[in-house]
Amino acid sequence: MESNIAQAIQMKYFPVAVVLTDERPEGALQFQEGKWGCVIAMLNAAAKGKTAVFNRKTFGCLGGGVGLGFGNVYQNFPGGIEHFLSTGNEDFCNTEFGKSIAQKMPHLQHGEGYKKSPEIAKKFVDDLPIIDVPTEYIVFKPLEKLAEGEPPKVVIFLVNPDQLSALVVLANYPRETNDNVTVPFGAGCQSIGIIPYKESESEFPKATIGLIDITVRAKCDKDILSFAVPHKMFLEMESNVKGSFLEKQEWIKVLERNK
Fold this sequence. Notes:
The chain has about 260 residues and is an alpha+beta fold.
C-alpha cells in the first residue's frame, strides 16, 4: 500500500511494515543460524526496498531476539545482561569461559555504561515488555509490498528532524492529549519491536521514537531516527493527512529546503 504520510513528508526511504506470520517470504534476507547480525541492518535493507525475515534461530544477537519479540533470550546472556549494560563483569571475564567470550564481546568486561549500576540495569530489563510472539516468523518489508489483507503489527518511518517534527505533530493532531509520542531508553530493536507491540494493546496507542541507541547509531545515517507506530495508530495518522498542516504553507516551506 502507498502511504499518504510518506508522500506528504517526502520520505527518502520506504516506510517499513513489521509483519508477524507463519509463512516465510521467498527471497527474503535472513541471518544465518548461529551467526551474529544486527536487526537494524535488516531494517535499513527493508527501508531501501528489500524484505527481511527472522525466526527463533536467526534473530542475529540476543538483544535482537528480545527486541523482535522471541522471548526472554537475555536469560542466556553470558555474564549477565545487567552487567553488560552497566559496569561490566570482570569476575566472569577472568574465568576461562569468560575470557573466550570477552574476546568477541569486549564490552563484557567493563560494560557499555548505558546504566549506572547493574541493579538499575536489571530494573530496566525487568520492566521491558518482553513477549514471545505467537508466529514462527517476523518479517520486515516495505509498506508498499504488503499484500491485501496482510495487516502489519507496526509501521516504521526512518526520518530526518524535519520529517520527525511532522510525524510528532500529526500523531497529536486528532487527540485531546498531547503526549502521544514517547522516546524511551532502549535498544534500537526494542524501539521498533516490543515497545510499539506493547503500545498496540492500548486503546490510544503512542508512537515510539527510536534509534537513540548509541550502539546502533553508526549503522544509521547521522540525521535519521525511527518513528514506530502500531497499525491502528498508523491508520489514524494516515486518515488525518488531508486537511492538516501537511497541506499548508508552513510545512511546504519546510519541504522546500529539503529538496
